[in-house]
Specification:
By secondary structure, the protein is α+β, with helices and mostly antiparallel strands. The protein is 30% helix and 45% strand. It has 3 helices and 6 strands. The chain has helices at residues 3-23, 26-30, 50-62; strands at residues 33-40, 47-48, 67-77, 83-93, 99-112, 115-127. A hairpin with a 6-residue loop joins β1 (33-40) and β2 (47-48).
Length: 132
């Protein structure tokens, strides 16, 4: 798969994710993950399955992340394009428009039914609430 097509595909999925996040459609977001996904979030045990992905996004929103700004930094797929990785950074922004959390994430995506879905997500963060 051409690098430019992979970037286009991942960007489209990211944009859809952000639309759903803004609308509070966490069940829709969970469907962007594989059924057997692995979620590794800071300070939590490793979680499995779409329900874990749904609960993570709902928690981020309820904890004050009105918006998550993500910068796609590096992506690469195998020759068959079935599995790809995406390295990115993010900022969590509260309702007042202040960045209160930044971090990095690494995702492994698997093509399922013709669309990339998140298979594994692992991220870290630097909570900046104390300095805002």
């Amino acid at each position: 798969m051409a690098d430019s097509q992979l970037k286009t595909d991942l960007t489209e999925i990211h944009d859809l994710f952000m639309e759903m996040y803004a609308a509070g459609d966490f069940k829709g977001i969970a469907n962007l993950y594989t059924e057997d996904c692995v979620v590794m979030a800071p300070g939590q045990e490793t979680q499995f399955g779409r329900k874990a992905a749904e609960e993570l996004q709902a928690k981020l929103k309820s904890d004050g992340a009105a918006k998550i700004i993500t910068k796609l930094e590096e992506w690469k797929g195998g020759e068959d394009g079935e599995i790809v990785y995406l390295r990115s950074s993010f900022e969590m922004v509260n309702e007042d428009g202040c960045v209160y959390n930044v971090g990095k994430k690494l995702g492994i995506w698997k093509k399922t039914d013709g669309m990339y879905k998140m298979k594994v997500i692992c991220f870290n963060s630097e909570d900046r609430k104390s300095v805002v």
